[in-house]
Specification:
The chain is an alpha+beta fold. It has one domain: Glutamine Phosphoribosylpyrophosphate, subunit 1, domain 1, CATH 3.60.20. Helix content is about 35%, strand content about 25%. The protein is built from 7 helices and 13 strands. It has a 5-stranded antiparallel beta sheet. The protein is globular and about 50 Å long. One of its GO terms (biological process) is ubiquitin-dependent protein catabolic process. It is found in: Cytoplasm; Nucleus. Its main location: cytoplasm. Belongs to the peptidase T1A family.
């Protein structure tokens, strides 16, 4: 941060002279100090991969969870504070339960994303509470295909639009956000059919300390053409590629998926699939290192 937060960082409802809310910036900083997590959306589902950094040798394997099944059909991975994570998981599961009781059907992931994001945003408005230091990846596979969402500590969320051939949204909203360059205006001028190329990057999302490096890796993969069996290998490869061996030597790789292969249920990948994906990631990393050495010798 370029400016000093002294006196202006005591409340989430207080702005600095530069127009910043330091409490929200601190929440983002908590996310940046967490291990990397990625979510990739393919033609038949969504896969998740998490770099679970081992903070102490005394920890038992798998004792720190960052991958959750919020409902049978919805997977969630997080980056940030563990205490805040537990609170948000309970909130999300309560929303799923409430929706089932009221409507008699599973909650659409879009509705769940909106409810969680509104709850997180509410915690940025009042001085008696603080923002959640957590970013969230939500994924599901429903009747109309795969869905992937990212929720930030401020309550802002992003949606992957690349799977739908014609996504219709209010024209005025898109013109304000993106301009006319990424859209084709219909004669009515009230709707816009999005150019999918403008949203290609949202087929894969990343959160955590190596978020930017992970996004760079994801941009090189044609995610929309792959099934989840292929995507799980690419997700593992991305985590191994962006892992910083100097600062964080040991980590556990958590992999899960949801799609047609899993009967639309979010599940941890089977042990044999996990081993295959991890071996692929390690092998790719070694081949990349050998190639760099050969280039250096030229």
């Amino acid at each position: 941060m370029s400016s000093i937060g002294t006196g202006y960082d005591l409340s989430a409802s207080q702005f600095s002279p530069e127009g910043k809310v330091f409490q929200i910036e601190y929440a983002y900083k908590a996310v940046e100090n967490s291990g990397t997590a990625v979510a990739l959306k393919g033609k038949d589902g969504v896969v998740f991969a998490v770099e679970n950094i081992v903070l102490s040798k005394l920890y038992e394997p798998g004792c720190v969870k960052r991958t959750f099944s919020i409902d049978e059909h919805i997977g969630m991975v997080v980056a940030g504070l563990q205490s805040d994570t537990k609170a948000l998981v309970e909130i999300a599961r309560d929303e799923c339960k409430s929706y089932r009781e009221n409507f008699g059907s599973p909650i659409p992931v879009k509705s769940l994303c909106e409810r969680i994001s509104m709850h997180m945003h509410a915690y940025t408005l009042y001085s008696a509470i603080r923002p959640f230091g957590v970013s969230i990846l939500l994924g599901s596979y429903e009747k109309d295909g795969a869905h992937l969402y990212v929720i930030e500590p401020s309550g802002m969320y992003y949606v992957s639009l690349a799977a739908a051939p014609n996504v219709q949204v209010p024209g005025s909203l898109l013109r304000n956000a993106f301009g006319r360059s990424c859209a084709r205006i219909r004669p009515s001028d009230s709707e816009i059919i999005l150019s999918l190329n403008a949203f290609k990057a949202y087929e894969g999302c990343a959160i955590g300390k190596a978020r930017q490096n992970a996004k760079t890796e994801l941009e090189q993969i044609k995610l929309g053409d792959m099934d989840i069996q292929q995507l799980i290998k690419e997700a593992a490869k991305v985590i191994y590629t962006v892992h910083d061996e100097i600062k964080d030597k040991n980590f556990e790789l958590d992999l899960s998926w949801v799609g047609s292969k899993t009967d639309n249920r979010h599940q941890v990948v089977p042990p044999e699939v996990h081993k295959e994906a991890e071996d692929y990631a390690k092998r790719s990393l070694e081949e990349s290192g050998d190639l760099d050495e050969e280039i250096g010798m030229l």
